[in-house]
């Protein structure tokens, strides 16, 4: 007496509709998660580009600093050589004065 064929069909139909609704909801949730992943992927790409460009900039700065250091060392060497030449010229002038006095 309890279950009639109409009630069983209604119950099966309700269960079927509920399962379809849950499936659609799950599909929508999965789609939203994929959209979030796509956004995150784009952000990661942008950050990778920034990191790459920053790294390149740092390498260029490092190279410029090396060149500047070399240039500074060259300048120091040039100054040192100029002082040596000045000292040598002074010595030669002194020797010439001494020779003239003789």
Any overview of this molecule?
Helix content is 95%, strand content 0%. With 102 residues, it is mostly helical. The protein has one domain (1-102). The N and C termini lie far apart (149 Å). Residues 7-29 have a biased composition (Basic and acidic residues). Residues 1-29 are annotated as: Disordered.
What attributes does this structure have?
102 residues, 0% strand, mainly alpha, rod-shaped
The biggest beta sheet reads: none
Contiguous helical run count: 1
Structural class: mainly alpha
How much of the sequence lies in strands comes to under 5%
- Mean model confidence by pLDDT: 85
Radius of gyration, CA atoms, in whole angstroms: 43 Å
**Count of distinct strands:** 0
> Unreliable runs, pLDDT <50, ≥5 residues?
none
Q: How many separate domains make up the residues?
A: 1
Which shape, going by the Cα principal axes?
rod-shaped
Order of helices and strands: H
Q: What order do the helices and strands come in, and which of them pair?
A:
Elements: H1 5-101
Write a short abstract of this structure.
This protein has one helix and no strands. The chain is mostly helical.
